C-alpha cells in the first residue's frame, strides 16, 4: 500500500512530462521508438503512447526503459538546478581601490570557477590596475568609454572607445586610464585571475 501511494505521489509530481523526458533520452541515444521497444521488450505503440503522455508506465517498466537508455530512476527524476544565463546589476560584486583609483565589478558571480572571468573595470582619470606578474592564459578587453594604455613588459599600447585588446600575459602587465577622461572597459581573463 505504501509503495502504491508513493507511486501516485511521484506520478503527480512528475506529470511534468515523463513522456517528453523519455523521448529526449531516446533521441539522445539515437534510438528509434522501435529500437527502444525491442530492447525493452515492449511494443512500438506503447512507446509512442508513453512519449505522448497517453499512458503511464509501471515502475518496473520505467526502470527497464531507463536501464536501456543508460540512466537510473534517481537520475531521471532529479531536478537539475537551472543554470543562470543572464546577470543583472544586483548580481554583480564590486571592489573599489581608492589608492589605484579604480572600481572592479565582477559581472558574472563566481566566475573564478569557470574558464573565463569577465569584469567591468572603471578607471578614474589617471587610475590604473595593479601590476600583474606573468601567468598562463589569455587577456582580452574592450574599451566602452575613454581611453587606456596597456603596459605589457616594456611596451605600451593605446586603445580608445570602441577598440579591443588581446595579449598573452607572459610579461608583467597593467592597464592605465587616460589622465583626462579615465576609462571603462570589459576585461576577460582566462583562466580566472582577477
Short description:
Helices cover 28% and strands 28% of the residues. It is of the alpha+beta class and 194 residues long. Strands 1, 2, 3, 4, 5, 6, 7 and 8 form an eight-stranded antiparallel β-sheet that branches.
Task: Give a written overview of the molecule.
With 194 residues, this protein is an alpha+beta fold. The chain has helices at 2-13, 18-28, 33-40, 44-51, 59-68, 73-77; strands spanning 93-97, 102-106, 117-123, 138-152, 155-160, 164-167, 173-177, 183-190. Strands 1, 2, 3, 4, 5, 6, 7 and 8 form an eight-stranded antiparallel sheet that branches. Helix 3 (33-40) packs across helix 4. It is elongated. The N and C termini lie far apart (58 Å). The model is unreliable at 1-15 (pLDDT under 50). Residues 22-76 form the HTH cro/C1-type domain. GO terms for molecular function: DNA binding; DNA-binding transcription factor activity. This is DNA-binding helix-turn-helix protein. InterPro entries: Cro/C1-type_HTH, Cupin_2, Lambda_DNA-bd_dom_sf, RmlC-like_jellyroll, RmlC_Cupin_sf, TransReg_Diox_bact_type.
